[in-house]
Write a structure and sequence with these properties.
Layout lengths: L4 E6 L14 H10 L4 E3 L5 E3 L19 E5 L14 H12 L14 E8 L2 E6 L6 H4 L12 H4 L20 E7 L3 E6 L12 E6 L3 H10 L4 E2 L7 H5 L4 E16 L9 H9 L3 H9 L10 H4 L14 H8 L5 E7 L3 H15 L4 E7 L1 H4 L8 H4 L4 E7 L7 H4 L17 H12 L3 H18 L2 E14 L2 E2 L16 E2 L3
Parallel strand pairs: 1-9, 1-10, 12-13, 12-14
Antiparallel strand pairs: 2-3, 4-6, 5-6, 7-8, 8-9, 11-14, 11-15, 16-17
Helix pairs in contact: 7-10, 8-11, 15-16
Length: 497
Amino acid sequence: MPAGRLVIAVPQEPQSLNTLLTEGPSSTMLDPLVYSFLLTIDDRGNLAPDLAAEVPSARNGGISADGRTITYRLRKNVVWQDGVPLTARDVVFTQRAIMNPSNNLFSRYGFDRVLSIAAPDPYTVRIRLRTPFSPVLTQFFGPANNYGIVPEHILARYADINRVPFNGMPVGSGPYRVKEWIRGDHVTLVANPTYFRGPPKLETIVLKFVADSGTVLNQLRTGEVNAYFFSDPTHMAEYAAIPALHASRAPFAAFGDLVFNLRNQSLADPRVRRAIVEALNLPQIVRNATRGTQTTADPNFALFGRTADASIDPSPYDPAAARAFLAPRGLSLQYAFETGKAASASIGVQLQQQLRAAGVNLTLHPYSPELFRAQASAGGPLFGGTFQIGFFEVFTTGDWDSSWYLSCAQVPPAGFNVSRFCDPVAESALQGVLTSYDEAKQRRLAGIVQRRVSQLVPYVSLWSQNAIYVTPTGLRDFTPSPASPYWNAWAWSLAGS
């Protein structure tokens, strides 16, 4: 029988419990617990089956010779948490729900590459792509996108899913089901006895909303929470000193991003953005803000994966040249960041000090985590384009694809290109990466993109993420993957429970 209770502090409350309406950290924590995907990424970084019985390939007939037809064969023992069988029709329905313009999604990236989708039988899904799309396995209900499969039998009755009861009490097919959502406080999840891998070993997982990392530290000490994923590096020593808890680090598909709004008049000139970067001692900023847990070594890896070119660096540190260019302009800028993480605030204070020496006045504008990442319609500065300079940790796809973040077609509200970067040279190379299955060609074209980013500076990647996980010493089989610490939550157990 399942036993044990894990209370995980999370910095951001979801805006919805519907997988299609969540984004960023909310989707990373919630979706693998409540929903299922076609594929996942294991702790070694390899694609692995989830709802699919196998990973499609040319060898098993899952990928056609022209790379445009992908066939998924589903497991036959999967049911929704209300007992209804999950079939290929649910996958088809979810794709169509994503592409329904009436649904308020953050992005349709990857799904908009699908020309047609069919369910020739209850356990086969066949998609036909408009053009070859090399990251299709990670993007189409895979570990690189935010969206799990949703039930047709519950949601098909609605013209849109923006305000339906499901969003507060969803029915998924994952290892845990939602028991309650106490808004402003927590979500309680309980083991799903009908989960296709078997009942989870851990009985209850509580996601407790605590925005401030200092408060989390106190609650870890008092036992109000007993786990904290993506922990604040400024408290690393304090975590390690708490009895019965263990702090560890592991690579994660994310990066710390100093992003510029290219549509802001003060930052429209790339020479201004380069001079701002020249004014900054980035290694020092990162070391101070993260207590040495993150470094500026190979900062492009998280976004560009195996196509990352470590020889392409941001503008060199040259405070004298930066001051000569910036001081006569008398710039006054604003730095936007989300509250609750000391590292984000520390970066802002250091930027303020170093840019002051270059003749730039920088004010700090904190936002709650929920507002900072909210859609434009809800006043979110990133997606609404109301910021100038911002810092946030970007959760990436975990592969070599960067177009979701840099393509002209992904500028909000269509996607996640929050810098509003749109460069014809980079765009041509991005599309070439996406439509080629040739790794040498992908590397060459990705190098073009990275050089254009270095020249035009829509953002500066400060580090590729080392996630910090604080867990009970008795937590067994916690083996986080580069895509999610929750990928195998069904296997977790607590010693002594």
